[in-house]
Specification:
alpha+beta, 5-stranded antiparallel beta sheet, 33 helices, 18% strand
Length: 1047
Amino acid sequence: MADTAPLNGPELDPWQDTRPFSSDVLTNGCNPSADDYNTNDVPLSLNGIHHSTNGNTKAELRHMNSSSDNKNALDTGYVDSENAAREPESGVEESESGEEDDDEEGEEDDEEVEGEDEEGEDDYEDEEEDEPTLKYERMSGAINDLLKKDSASALAVSNNLLALGTHNGIVHIVDLTGKRIKSYKPHQASVSDAEFDSTADFVATASIDGQVVIQSLSTHESYMFDMKRPIRTIALEPNFGKKSTRSFVCGGMAGTLVLREKGWLGHKETVLHSGEGPVWHVRWRERLIAWANDLGVKIYDTQSQMRITFIERPADSPRADLFKCTLHWQDDTTLLIGWADYIKIACIRERPHTATASGSSNQPPFIVEITAAFQLDCMVSGIVSNSPSMPRSKDGSSAQDKTPQSFLILAYQAPDTYGDEMTEDRARQARKTAERPELRIISHTGEELSADALGVTNYQAWSCNDYVMVEVDGSSSPGKSGRCHVVISPKDIVIVRPRDRKDHILWLVDHQLYDEALEEVGKLDDNECSADGDQSEISPIAIGERYIRHLVAEGNFAKAASLCPTVCSTDVERWENWIFVFAQSQQLQAIIPHVPTEAPQLGHLVYEMILAHFLVHDRQSLMRTINEWPKSIYDVSAVIVAVQAELDRSPSSSSSRSLPAPDTVILMECLAELYTANRQYGKALPFFLRLRRQNVFELIREHNLFTDVKDQVLLLIEFDQELLEKRKQEGTEAEASSSEAIALLVDHIHSIPIVRVVQQLRDRPFYLFLYLDALFKKDSQLGFEFADLQVTLFAEFATHRLIDYLRASTSYNLETAYNECKNRDLVTEMVFLLGRMGNNKKALTLIIERLGDVHMAIEFAKEQSDDDLWEDLLKYSETRPTFIRGLLENVGAEIDPIRLIRRIKNGLEIPGLKEALIKILHDFHLQISLLEGCQTILNGDSSDLAKTRSKGQNSGFFMKSRSICVLCTQPLQRLPQDLLLLFLCHHVVHASCIDGMTDIYSHEEPSEGMSMLASGVSAKIAFASVVRARIHQGCPVCYRRSEGNLM
């Protein structure tokens, strides 16, 4: 019997170790390069290399007959695995790299592997990759620092607690986050095996120093047994912490399987089996104990104390000490066996009852059926079920129904078969470099479903027995949920979890399948979405941004821009960032149609940048955008400056009738719209005129732009004349004298000075004539200083109206006007001017000799009222019957008929006389009066309001007995003799409350007797005048309120 003693192992802090160690984990999917061994804290991926097997790799399988003997022969072939594309899974960070003091020999190995990596990558690039099934995460926390100084050798798990045994004989208790809970040193050599009880209170460890230690984590209870020989494995009875027997089973190099139980007299030792070589592994489930030795696997029933089966180890198996056996109870009746390159599934069921009872008492109560057995192309370092465990059938269903759907195995590619150990060739004796371990999912038929290569530190140096994999329920781990697995190597702890929908989305994103990723995100339930929020990597916004970046990198800017409204939504900063990205890529036009102008409204610089882009590249879009966008979202003044600068660089458009270039027209349209939006109507006016906008006159009148028109007179009249010509072409009657522009100029001479108009129209005489003519028609004295110029203009453009002007105006110079008419041979006008100048005889001579118009001569004589002129006319008419007839037709007060008849020579024949129709009206009174309707209405309203106010102020005022003085807040009728002052605003105050009214009482109020009516009224008026003179600011209440001194 081994020695036993209580053990109170001290808790240890991290210790020093001089062995070199590199804790980097290589990026999965490639062989190591020289950079893979760099330990300068480079974050790398733990994700495994994923093999796209797609169900094409399958092991030959032969099901074993359940009624066969315990010895089973298995004939299987090796797995022919395919090399598939290996891509690292993103999103998982590795722990920090280790120290940089690796030896030179390790660096040389790294360089050799680097060459293999470069060749292997080329083979994988063109192959399609399937989505992995698992995800990997390096355990973080203090455990990484511990493994830099020691190496892991054993692992046990229970209730999310890990018991990690090391080669230094130390046990660390950590949780799944890597937080160290407790450390103690129970052994002096490597810990070969460890196990938790179901309560996670007791930890049992076995060591090659021959010691077995069971330690309670919550109490001081502990047990230590010296077995004298190295112990390889240990297993605690189910519910160890709840039973008083404290039973466990262990085995090792001594070749015996020992069961120890605690009794009244101490621990009792029972040898369950011996004599078949070392015991490599043992596991206890309910009443069944399974162990493995050199010959195979045996299962023992503790209740019947009988061995119920023996599963033989294949004859051609490699050495048992180099490739360990792994036993895993999937449930109470299913045992998974992985040994070297073989996997067997054993299902235990109750032995059926037979009619013959002979010998039944010597038979075990259970029988074992091998439901599946197959050989792999790798060594098995660990095996667990990849499907939920299934309870034992109670209705007699076949064991085949309980076969797990798939297995998760930790595969080790053996670099050497160790079949020629006796060779003297040193090259063959040298230790071969190991491959990366792999996690494979194998179906129950042997089909490889997926394979991921794990990147672990210094994997080239590790053997099959250096890796351990255990299953853990991670439902209570912080931030995690569901079942997971833990894989350890001497320097690494990797947590393996099944991939969920979020991982699937991340995989789609990493492989640039963004459309599918966004579709999957839409399928997430509300709890999943709310748990992650907008900042999550799988939120539609995050995925959409990655999608946009991908599309931008590929040059698909149109599709990238179409995603922006969904991705950016109402996030102003995100919108602006993406717009600037498009701008930097010279693809701003792609995103412009999607840029929001409200909900959200972006910064004004963004909109101004877009307008600047249109200004340079697409001016039609610039004009359309300015018309459509709200003017409040950008700085209108800044845009005006930019457009104006561009217009200044364009070919100048003169004020002639020819239209400017199309681009110039667009720029002017933009400026007109911008100035109007900025309420700078005066600056917009020149562009409206040059663009021939028909609403110019309405714009001028609506916004009172008459002052701005004074410098745009020529443009205004030109535009108006074009409208008149257009109406004539359309068949609408129009006269130049009906020009709307001329009428506007004439009606607003106070805002548009006459001198400014004349200066601008000097080079366009016809327009000047129209203006001065309209001005004269309104008021003959308005343009008196330009009368001589107007004579010339009438003589050129309206000769038939010149005589009317000469008669109506007195402002022109007679001599200048006569010379102008003389130069143009305007006889009628010359006659009139000579008459004005007093040279009546010369005027009459012109009428008689040049015109021969008797009626005109008579009228001229009448106008002059000169007897000598009449004498000359009569003298001239003596020999001209026509003149005599005309004179006779005009006999009146001016001509004495007798005088005329006496001068007629005898025998002169005068044609028939007729009654003359004299009186021809020549003058037309110009009636241009603009009825100011609005002014008339305003005057009427003002009058009505004034009457209303006067009536209100002069009406009576009802004062209540409790009314108070606003100034002193005392009752108005506090004393009968108090003088009260009533103002038109209906405020009543004490006279004594007003400054300067203290001596007002010295003036006696006049009597109101009927006999003194006249004097009393006069006295009241006088008294009121005195009071009014004392009140300088009007109503004191209103005044103080206006000053803010009275509420």
